[in-house]
Design brief:
mainly alpha, 72% helix
């Protein structure tokens, strides 16, 4: 893994912060893992701040330009996201159905059953 240099002050702050992070999240990360996570988090926050302030039309143009320059990656990623979104929506719908069944207390049959002894041969 590539190495980066940080100041002694930043290293001491990271080391002390790791104890707080572990107590708050109950996840034990090495200093390298924590530094990587914090850098990724910082990048995500900065990009989010910049992108959130942009006009939707500008963002659409940027995506279209990415599709022209990197079609496999752009449209492959978009397809993956759509598939995941579909799976999430289907899972949410199934969960909603289950919740509704629990609220009602029973699940209506798919097709009504005739009373015992009666036939359904209608003429």
């Amino acid at each position: 893994m590539p190495q980066i240099e940080i100041t002694d002050e930043t290293y001491q702050q990271l080391s002390a912060f790791s104890h707080f992070s572990q107590a708050a999240s109950e996840m034990e990360l090495t200093l390298d893992q924590l530094a990587d996570y914090l850098i990724q988090f910082g990048i995500d926050q900065m990009v989010t701040t910049i992108i959130a302030s942009q006009d939707a039309e500008l963002m659409l143009k940027m995506i279209l330009q990415m599709g022209r320059q990197h079609p496999e990656q752009t449209y492959g990623y978009m397809a993956d996201v759509m598939h995941v979104g579909k799976e999430i929506n289907e899972a949410k719908l199934a969960e909603l159905r289950e919740q509704m069944q629990r609220r009602i207390g029973f699940q209506p049959p798919d097709q009504p059953k005739p009373p015992e002894g009666m036939t359904t041969n209608a003429r």
